[in-house]
Amino acid sequence: MALSTHCNNSTGRRRQVFILVGAGVFLSTMDSSMVNIALPTLMAQFDASFNHIRWVVLCYLLAITVSLLFFGMAADRFGAGTIYLVGVGGFVCGSLASALAFRLDMLLACRIVQGLGAAMLMAAGPALIRELFAPNHLGRGLGLVGIATSLGLMSGPLVGGILLTYFSWRTIFLVNLPLGLIMLVAGFVLLKGAKPPVARPRSLDLKGALLWAAIIISMVVFLDLAPTFGVISGTFGVVWLGALISYFYTAEKSGAVNLIPRHLFCAGYYPIGLITAAVSFGVLFMVLLIMPFYLSLIKGLAPDRMGFVMMAVPVSVGVVGPVAGILHDRFGARLPATSGLLLCGGACMLLAGLSPGHPPLAIGWRLVLLGMGQALFLAPNSASLLGGISTEDVGITAGLLATARNLGMLVGAAVGAVLLGALFQQLSGGVHLHDFTALQTPPFMTALKITFWVAAAASFGNAALSWRR
Length: 469
What we know:
- By secondary structure, this protein is mostly helical.
- It folds into two domains: about 10-205 and about 255-465, Growth Hormone, Chain: A (Up-down Bundle); about 205-255.
- The chain has 18 helices and no strands.
- Helix 5 packs antiparallel against helix 6 and helix 15 packs antiparallel against helix 16 (about 360-385).
- Residues about 5-10 have low confidence and may be disordered.
């Protein structure tokens, strides 16, 4: 039976399930933003290079991206409630293990476990929301979820900065445990007995899932190796990825069960919505990954003050997110989504103009514009995808949308890290970011500007694509 039936049409129970979904969004986004703030601290703690420490973020995003489609299908087969509960348990276990890690390789392995749990939350959460809200109010429902997202992103820099300043880095993972355990208990009570909303559950495409994972992992590895091996890595990477993608396409076309159902892509808005989601989150994560290094190395801010500055993005998302959902319900997705992407591009141009002398307030209002643009895009784009499909495709679409976002974050983080690290090393005469001193401020700022200009160009191109939806 569908969740709405399971809940016996109880408004109170629906509200409780909505809060549970929002708590999962809050927990996973808070963790992500805390870890971004912690990267400079972790680099010093583990005496690791920038090339190595960035994998603390990349492993988490990689685990999410390679598994989201599979968990979306699993939500259709076994029920969104079941997948959501398993995800909460996995995320809590990964958080505890990360807090106990005493080597960088152990931390990376634990972050993969955490990412798999987060992937289940991201795949199942929107499917549960789709069952709670009528189609004409879906944008409003997603806007309310945007509040939970913004609260998590807002709390992450603040809480993470305070914990890093006054306690150990391990506390940024331990802080997940209380809420996670409460969610686990509440989930068993609220979601017990809920069944998939389709009479004939979708089979699982294990072959497609493995091929998809191979494509994503290969892409990230080749991006990471590109600065070291140059043309050799690039040439081999293109050939290898081309072969994998060709095999994946052939397998999906001929298979009885598809990881990515082809019929969903017949409507033009569908691929545009997924592509623009990926690029927008790629731009966002390029900024969120490298800004803490600017604030720490150039501005010399303590983690708690860094947290306050980085809060500018989620605070603006929280304010504008609900408004964006209402705008979609009234005007559709095209205008608010495209306007948001243009605003993101303008914000990246302004960030490229930063100098070592800019005060935190001047940095903050630029980040506010970035958050406003992201909020204007997010809810309308998500609602346009989830609002135009059948109930049978809710789980896989939620998985596709979340995969697109996380693929964008993964590629954006990888490209941003590679650009900043490689450009800085080249411009500074071979100095690694780990060995940064004040003498390397000019090459760092040049590398930062170029990276932000790349982000701006990507955002403007994304806006042009969004206008064609």
